Every structure is written in structure tokens, then in C-alpha cells.
Amino acid sequence: MTITIRQITPVFAGEVSGIDTTQPLSGEAVAAIEAGMDRYAVLVFHGQHLTDDAQRAFTRNFGTLEASPGGHIATAAERRLPLDMQDASNLDRDQRPLARDDRRRMFNLGNRLWHSDSSYRALPAKYSLLSGRIVVERGGHTEFADMRAAYDALDDGVKADIEDLVCEHSLMFSRGVLGFTEISEAERAMFRPVRQRLVRTHPVTGRKSLFLSAHAGTIVGWPVPEARAFLRDLIEHATQPQFVYSHKWRQWDLVIWDNRQTMHRVTRFDETQVRDMRRTTVAGDAMTVAQAA
Questions:
Q1: Among candidates 97, 99, 142, 110, which has minimal Cα distance to 279?
Q2: CA 197 – CA 288 distance, rounded (Å)
Q3: What phi, psi does 252 have (nearest 5°)?
Q4: Residue 131: is it exposed, middle or buried by C-beta count within 10 angstroms (0-12/13-18/19+)?
Q5: Which residues 6+ apart lie within 8 Å of 96 measured at CB?
Q6: What are the pLDDT digits (tens) for 85-100?
Q7: Cα dihedral value 204, 146, 267, 141, nearest 10
Q8: By C-alpha distance, which of 198, 224, 201 is closest to 212?
């Protein structure tokens, strides 16, 4: 079959057919998917019965897998998945939902905030690939915001104001918003803030986008209260309904998104139910700005 992509919303996101992601891909198929990502920023594949190894193999078509140290607080003994897979589930190693007061669950509630994966790394991520192994009936949608369209909708004065701004990103900022402050000294060192440009330019299309995230807590050279108020205003602008696609999961869906062009979040769901979601991430290949020593 030939790969086809149907646009889902008037602005972005596409539904892909004519491909089995569990099988090796031709160079033409890889190129078609990458071209689709450049255009739509989010791609949805239904009925992809991926194993962990198959998901890793498919991900490697698009670059190097990102390992996850620095992006979690689970100890080695608590982890369900290897370091090159991110656990977006609500489960412990015995496949049981985490207790409501479990520290790992408290930390993972940050995924309900609008964010870009790995913006807290000096080298931010390229693509994220999320596989829905077990999904819930109600809630648990993943919402995506098109940061290109959000940038385009700004007036020229604001575009000029933000063109050269640099933000500091850290998991401490996003978790602090939720009141999660019990962070060890080792975790503080792991989550040390990194610098990212507020406006990014896509390396293929040349299109500009906002690089926003709940992880962004300051703007370099600005007073912190002013910076956070301004960033909040930009996020409110960027997540207006006309810029957002909400994905209702079916079991065995695979969704790929470009972190350079989108933000996303998960919506609330009944966490007494099992939700097994497994993410692989394609590492980025360039910093947005040189890092402070």
C-alpha cells in the first residue's frame, strides 16, 4: 500500500494509513513520514501492535533514541522500562496503578501541564512517539497545540519583542507550579536549568514557532514575576481551541509529534484504571542557544 495522510484539523495533525510500523521501512516510507511530520507536526497511526523492541526499531528510523536520565525521579528498582523508553503510564513494576500519594505519581502530574518533551535538556528532543498499549475509556486524551500557527497569529510588535528572548527551562519549574517541592540535592543537580530560545526556526521548512513549555520558568534578563506572567500569557494564546488537536486514544494507537513545533499535555482520567503508555524519543541534533557555564 501507498502511505497516505489525511489532515485531521484545519490547522495541523494528520492520520496516516498504508503502513505497518512493526515491520522494517523502506527509505521512501521514512522520507514520507518525515515529510508528513514537517507539514503536520503530529501524525496518528491506528492499529499498530508494537512491542517495546519494535517501537525502538521504528523510532531509530528518525534518529538516535534519547535515554531518560534527568527526566524522572524513579529509582532503578522502581523503573518498569529501560532507559531508552519513557514510562508514561500510571503503573508500578507489578503493573498496578500507583497509589494516589505515591511520589512518582505526584511528579508525573506535571504531564497535565502544557509542555514540550525534553525542553529541560540542553539538547531538546526532536520527535516523541507514544504507543497506547492499554488505554482508558474516559479522559486521558493527549492534546497538542500547533506552535507555528500560534506564532503566526501574534502581531508584528510581539514578534519583534520576542525574537531574541532566551528562557530557562527545568523540571523544577513545572513541578513547582503544582506544589511539588520535595526535591533532593541530587535531583536539583539533575534538573539544573538550561537555556532555550523562545522563537525557533524549523531546519527544513524555515517556519518559525514558539518554543514554550511549563518547564520554562524565567526569561534571561527579566525579573522573574514579569517573565512568568508573560510566559503564561503566551501559553494561553498558543492553546486557544483553533490551535489545538485533542487525541482520543484507541488501543494500539501510535502518535508521533514534533517537539520543535508543538506543545502537548494529557487530560485527567480515572487513575484507579490501568493506562499503559510507552514513549520513545528521538534526540535532538542541535541546541537552540549556547548554554551558560
A1: 142
A2: 6
A3: 75, 15
A4: buried
A5: none
A6: 999 999 999 999 999 9
A7: -70
A8: 198
Residue 183: other Cβ atoms inside 10 A: 16
Pairing of strands 254-258, 42-45: antiparallel
> 152 near 209, Cβ under 8 Å?
no
pLDDT tens, 42-57?
Answer: 999 999 999 999 999 9
| Domain boundaries defined on the chain | 4-281
Per-residue CA distances from 143 to 7, 114, 172, 266 (Å): 16, 9, 23, 6
CATH of 4-281, one of 3.40.50.300, 3.60.130.10, 3.30.830.10, 3.40.190.10: 3.60.130.10
Give the Cα separation of 213 and 194 in Å (integer). Answer: 13
Q: Smallest Cα–Cα separation from 263: which of 221, 200, 214?
A: 214
Give the Cα separation of 235 and 102 in Å (integer): 29
Please, is 27 exposed, middle or buried when counting C-beta atoms within 10 Å of its C-beta (0-12, 13-18, 19+)?
exposed
Cell numbers standing for residue 208 = 518559525
CA distance 22 to 50: 6
DSSP annotation of 47 reads: S
Nearest of 118, 214, 229, 232 to residue 175 by alpha carbon: 214
Distance CA 173, CA 88 (A): 20
Read off the pTM. Answer: 0.95
